[in-house]
């Protein structure tokens, strides 16, 4: 292989960079909760097919029309999953970051209020699920 590879896969190598964390901590942990429900590919959003890539349905195939099984998986997150985790993080006083897809947040204002009231850090996870490769 004579041509230089365009990606850095080596980094610092065996000579790790010295990091000085507050209070001489040796590890930093960030808890992130993705909030995506309502922004996935779905014919209701004008997509040709419903979501097939990020799913618990192994080998999900595109179907014409609504994919009720897929929609149900995503709806669990917004209707129940978020609230179960939110309650736990609040009880334990654990600060978290929300990776929020804007379209999903726009569809559930009660979740937005809970995120704001909890003073969670919010990081943009894009407007919706589209291929951003060539944008």
UniProtKB/TrEMBL annotation:
InterPro entries: Glyco_hydro/deAcase_b/a-brl, NODB_dom. One of its GO terms (biological process) is carbohydrate metabolic process. One of its GO terms (molecular function) is hydrolase activity, acting on carbon-nitrogen (but not peptide) bonds. Gene3D superfamilies: Glycoside hydrolase/deacetylase. Residues 68-135 form the NodB homology domain. It holds the Pfam family Polysacc_deac_1. This is NodB homology domain-containing protein. It comes from marine metagenome.
